[in-house]
Protein: Aldo/keto reductase family protein
Organism: Streptantibioticus ferralitis
Amino acid sequence: MEHRHLGRGGMLISEIAYGNWLTHGSQVEEDTATDCVHAALDAGITTFDTADVYADTRAESVLGRALKGERREGLEIFTKVYWPTGPGPNDRGLSRKHLMESIDNSLRRLQTEYVDLYQAHRFDRFTPLEETMEACADIVHAGKAHYIGVSEWTAAQIRHAHALARELRVPLVSSQPQYSMLWRVIEAEVVPACAELGIGQIVWSPIAQGVLTGKYQPGQPPPDGSRATDDKGGADVISRFLRDEVLERVQLLRPLAAEAGLTLAQLAVAWVLQNPNVSAAIVGASRPAQVGENAKASGVRLEPDLMARISEITAPVAVTDPVRTYEQTPAQRP
């Protein structure tokens, strides 16, 4: 497993990170979730990403128990805050009240004294950004987080936050957007801004929720037990890719993956890692074997000609419009 700097910060993270969205506390039993975490550790993965909202806070608890007994200094644990975690009007958003309470709750569930990265899960248009950044700075200065980051923020939002972070002497080092061969909306604006500011991407869904494994066939129903049949949220997320024109293009990638000596999933993960602004690709799993297989994408170098042929195949169906990032900012408080 190779490691990369998170942005221009000094911290190194495994270039493949393990994430437990849609799995821990939800899709898989805790024993299996724990086995997946241990498989990640066995593969050399040291970076683990979660969020307070995943599985109604259960995902953080499952991850905390799975990592108990591991050497804390050898891990990078990330979590996020924004979405509702309770019934009250202040149990959401990026207000100072919610951030200061949420970090303590996350640390309790994760069974750790600090997280390595604390991320704003969305931009909060209803809280002054100055208030949010001052609270983040206090969290860092209190030793409860080492670095801060954002998730699905626009380039303009990131620039504003970065300027405030510099004034407050707090390290804003990361952005966590969706990114894959099929979802390239960050390339036009977010990546150039982050490269300029020294912010690295920790990308989620590099396999497009499993579509880039090739298991979904055009003209055929989704396989039983797949994410597309999950009624706990997985089916909603993956539906945008389950069109025959997309699935047909994915099948055209098979000979390219074989040429590189990779599975389709490994090719997809390796592809996002070719972007120099990407610090890590987050992979999830419902079975331990999936973790080890995906981890084999670490260190893979794809030739420019192969990258060009991948783009030629996927270009007709890839989403590239940067406006899709703007759409990630909720219009109303959740």
About this structure: The chain has a mean pLDDT of 94. Strands lie at 3-5, 12-14, 16-19, 47-49, 76-81, 115-120, 145-150, 172-175, 200-203, 278-283. Residues 3-326 form a domain with the TIM Barrel fold (CATH 3.20.20.100). Residues 96-110 form the longest helix (15 residues).
